[in-house]
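Q: Joint fold for the lines below.
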Amino acid sequence: TSMMRIEEVCASIVRSHRETSQYRLEELQALRWKLFSREEVHAYQSKSMDEMWQYCALRLTDAVQYVVEFAKRIPGFRQLCQNDQIVLLKNGSMEVVLVRMSRAFNTENNTVFFDGKFAGTELFKSLGCIDLITAVFDFAHSLCALRLTEQQAALFSALVLINSDRPCLEERGRVERARKEVELALSHTLHRDNQDGLIHKLYQKVSVLKSLCNLHIEKLRWFRQQNPLTVHSLFPPLYKELFA
Ligand SMILES: CCS(=O)(=O)c1ccc(CC(=O)Nc2nc(-c3ccccc3)c(C(=O)c3ccccc3CC(C)C)s2)cc1
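A: Joint structure:
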């Protein structure tokens, strides 16, 4: 892979991220001290479990749709066969949402951007899965601590998505080659930013992401056991397709 090719891969992934980021970093920063009032928090906490799950599933599906758009604009991803694109999105879209969403955390007051303002973990109480919520916050804190630039976050998102170890890939070799290019682009960028040390920290995050996604699926199964009709008839189809 020539240096020219690596620069090309970097530019296309960073551009795709910027075009599909849902909220720009500046927008999230501008809102970071806009907190829900005590009354607003209480209103969320008074929602039923299935109302709160429905609402979050909708919001999460919005975020996933932007990740699908991000993936489609990555040359190495677009050239894969349909089956493999779906396999990578099915297994990786939640991981990319979690990487992206870490930008929407204010680690100074432990809040996340949700429904127009910033919310603490207590706002999500009625979901009934405080362990998942806490794990998401903890992950966001640990990723924020690395202080990734948008370019580094874009390349790390592409690396998380284009993973040749996913099950049921038809053309694993092609995914491996696409992944290799993203790895070179990421290490090239980290080297240029004089942050070679970050690469192994980022690889450590990949295993945390996997366990977080498994916890999300586990909690969804737990919720669906109690509210089968809600999931069946009120959850977004894309959410069910990817996670149920
Ligand atoms: C991601 C692109 S972005 O432009 O940065 C962006 C764009 C838009 C937003 C607004 C937004 O949708 N925030 C949400 N916050 C949470 C959340 C909730 C609990 C703790 C921490 C964050 C959402 C979730 O539904 C969620 C997310 C991760 C794992 C689990 C869940 C809940 C389960 C029950 C589905 S949606 C935020 C950020």
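Q: Anything notable?
A: The pocket of 4CZ is lined by residues 21-23, 53, 56-57, 59-60, 63, 97, 100-101, 103-104, 112-114, 124, 127, 133, 136, 216 (CB under 6 Å). The chain has a mean pLDDT of 97.
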